[in-house]
Amino acid sequence: MSKFGVVVMGPAGAGKTTFCSALINHLRINKRSCFYVNLDPAAEDFAYEPDLDIKELISLEDVMEEMGLGPNGGLVYCFEFLLDNLDFLTESIDPITEEYLIIIDMPGQIELYTHIPIVPALVNHLRMSLNVNLCATYLLESTFVIDRAKFFAGTLSAMSAMIMLELPHVNVMSKIDLVKGTVGRKELKRFIEPDASLLDDDPSDTQAAVTSAQNKLADPQSSDSIMAGGSFKRLNHAVAQLIDDFSMVSFLQLDVQKEASVGAILSYIDDAIQYHEAQEPKEPNDEIEHNDGDADMG
């Protein structure tokens, strides 16, 4: 029996847990079942209590205290410990039936998805051992579009995760409401399918030129001088061209305050994991009878 799930990823502050909460709320409104898994060993505040929480197995705070590790090393240790104790996942996920959507909330350390083989090993266990049809949803904060170098760096991390995990991906620009008053709708559409031409008319280039002129007498090794220099600009163009050449990444826009926006993202997730194809067909009167039964119980 197949199961269905989504792995919610992205850098810290991208709104992963907020999106998970909005998704759970949307599923409940539409009378769909879900199973919420928190795999962030540092997370504490949840709108909906996780059905399975990695902190029941190991917490980042304990690891940092007992092992003398920093936050990044501690997160890696927590996931290595999880891989050594996969029964923790198996015992809870194995009984889940196909009408559920398993929502897996991941930490914000992008190294886990981009170039350390820990999360790929976890994904492989979920797919092969537990028969979970998975897709990844990678969130990137929409305010990154204001700084195009930062936007392409974030897009590169999304592409790296796509290549590492080998899963269907739904890439999302989150917190879209934060830029609607700053970036015009037509301009925002240019970031949906990123290409190198975005850097050709980067408004920050003018400011960079001014900064570079101001820093000619300053320390050439300072961060401001480096960020305003030609080498940094050439690096950004090389990154943008690499993304353009692969032509793998495109984005959907998300405003978690709007049900229609959350529903649109869910529809792409459902298509990616072929959720609806596995559901039992319902007779036209099934929903009516179900509602009548609810009314009788009231």
What does this structure look like?
The chain is built from 13 helices and seven strands. The two termini are 35 Å apart. Helix 2 crosses helix 3 (71-83). Residues 292-298 have low confidence and may be disordered. The chain has 298 residues and is of the alpha/beta class. Strand 5, helix 7 and strand 6 (169-174) form a beta-alpha-beta unit.
Largest sheet: 7 strands, parallel
The order of strands across the largest sheet is 3-2-4-1-5-6-7
Q: What's the helical proportion of residues?
A: 40-55%
Tally of DSSP helical segments: 13
Can you lay out the helices and strands and say which pair or pack?
Blueprint: E1 3-9, H1 16-29, E2 33-38, E3 52-53, H2 60-67, H3 71-83, H4 87-93, E4 100-105, H5 111-114, H6 118-129, E5 132-141, H7 148-165, E6 169-174, H8 185-189, H9 204-214, H10 223-228, H11 230-246, E7 251-253, H12 259-273, H13 286-297
Parallel strand pairs: 1-4, 1-5, 2-3, 2-4, 5-6, 6-7
Helix pairs in contact: 1-12, 2-3, 3-6, 7-11
Brief sketch in words of this structure:
This protein is of the alpha/beta class. The protein contains 13 helices and 7 strands.
